[in-house]
Write a structure and sequence with these properties.
This protein has 143 residues and is an all-beta fold. Helices cover 3% and strands 31% of the residues. The strands form 2 sheets. It has a 6-stranded antiparallel barrel with strand order 1-2-7-6-3-8. A two-stranded antiparallel sheet has the order 4-5. The radius of gyration is 16 Å and the shape is globular. The mean pLDDT is 88. Keywords: S-adenosyl-L-methionine.
Length: 143
């Protein structure tokens, strides 16, 4: 199997404005906070917001730019002992490509600014995509 190590191109579509300024301020997962964050979408991508509305559940994909990209083994958050696990079996922000996926509730949309509840991203985090949650697609299959 040949693995391509070519660089990929990814565009930042917006930025997070969050009450979480330092790594220790943010919860381990967005579902552990009711704090409101803002996502400011760049003007050239605002047409892509057409069709979303307050009350929608959205997946926000962010680039955790302050995460360590060299770690491949870690422990689950809160575990200080026990075996190390591969980062792909955890939700650790430290990983080769620090892409974060968080399900949020859209509280309000005004122009190019989204007010969302349940985002664990630090202030200034780049946003790389937004996708709607769909129960028919995003619910796990039965075995």
């Amino acid at each position: 199997m040949k693995i391509m190590n070519d660089a990929l191109s990814c565009r930042t579509i917006g930025v997070v404005r969050s009450p979480f300024k330092e790594k220790g301020d943010a919860p381990s997962q967005g579902r552990h906070t009711d704090e409101i964050s803002m996502i400011e979408i760049a003007p050239e991508y605002r047409d892509g917001l057409d069709g979303i509305a307050a009350g929608d559940d959205l997946f926000i994909l962010c680039w955790f730019d302050r995460s360590d990209r060299t770690i491949l083994k870690t422990r689950k958050r809160g575990e200080n002992e026990g075996p190390l696990r591969g980062v792909f079996s955890t939700r650790s922000p430290a990983r080769p490509n620090p892409i974060a996926l968080t399900l949020v509730k859209l509280v309000e949309i005004s122009g190019g600014t989204l007010r969302v509840r349940g985002l664990e991203a630090l202030d200034g985090t780049p946003v790389i995509d937004i996708k709607p949650y769909s129960a028919g697609i995003d619910t796990p299959r039965e075995s």
